[in-house]
Amino acid sequence: WFVSTRQCRRRAQKPWDASPLSMVFSQEDSFSLIELRALCHRIRRLIMQRGLFIFDAFSRFNVSASNAVTSSQLYSGVRWLGLAITEQQVHSVIRYYDAGNDGALKLEDFKRAFHRPGDEAAVLSEFSGDPSINEASPESIPQLPGCAELHQPETPDDAGAAGGLTSQDVANRFQVTVTSLGGALSSGCAEVYNSKGSGAQKLLTVWKPEPSLFTLSSASKHLVVGHYASVGVGKAPDARTVTITDTSSVFSSSLLDSVLD
User: Fold this and answer.
1) Residues 6+ apart with CB under 8 A from 173
2) Which of 107, 133, 190, 246 makes a 20 to 30 Å CA pair with 28?
3) Handedness of CA 178, 183, 185, 190 (dihedral sign)
4) 80-89: buried (b, 16+ CB within 10 Å) or exposed (e) per residue?
5) Average pLDDT, the chain
6) CA gap 75, 62 in Å, rounded
7) Torsion angle defined by CA atoms of residues 89, 95, 98 and 100, in that order, rounded to the nearest 10 degrees
8) For residues 99 and 26, what is the distance between their CA atoms, to the nearest angstrom?
9) Would the pLDDT of 165 be above 70?
10) pTM to 2 decimals?
C-alpha cells in the first residue's frame, strides 16, 4: 500500500527501508525498543569497562577511518568487547540511531546510542591508576564475517559500467530533457476520466500521457511524470514527459535500463 501510494507523488522515490519510516514497518511492538535500549546499555557498559571514552570507542570501531561505523564494523567491535551480538541486533541499532539513513553511524549517532553524560568522569575515576588507558598503540579490532551491510556501497558494476566507468561518468553520459507530446496529437494521451454526465458545472477530462506510442531509438526512453487535466471533453492537453537519452550511443544503450532502475 505504501509503495503504491508513493508512486502517485511527484517526488524522489526513495527506498522505504532507507527512511525513518523503516521503524514503523519493521518494529512489531514496543517491546523491541526495550530490548534495543537494553542492548545499547550493555554495549555502553562494556565500552566503559575497557577504559574507553566514546570517541576512542568510535575510532576503534571505525577501522576504515571513514567517519562512519558500518554494520560489519559495529558487529566486529561489539564482539571484540565480549558480547555475542547478532546481525539482526546490529541492524536494529543502526536503523534506530542512523540519523542520515545511510546505513552507518556517524559520531553523533554513535554517542546517542552508547554514551551518557558523566561517562568520561566514571572512566577516569575507575582507571585513574591504570596506564593502559593512555596506551600509545591501541589494540586493533579484527573484522569478522557474519554481518551484511544495510546499504551496500555502489560499485561501477552496480551502475552497469562494465568498462570501469564511475557513477559520475555514467551520470555525465545521459541527457535529461522535457519533451512535449503536443496538444494537437490526441494519440499522445489516453483519456482516463471525464466529468460528462456527472452534473458538474464545467466539463473536464483527465489524461495520461502515452509516450510508448512514439517511436524512439533504444538509446532513449520517455518517463511519464503524472496525469493532466483539461477543460472540456475530447481535447488533449499539451502534455510533457521526461526523456532520458544516452548521448554516447545512437541506436542502443547497454546502460539505459540500469540507469532507469
Assistant:
1) 165, 246, 247, 248, 255
2) 107
3) positive
4) bbeeebeeeb
5) 78
6) 11
7) 150
8) 17
9) no
10) 0.53
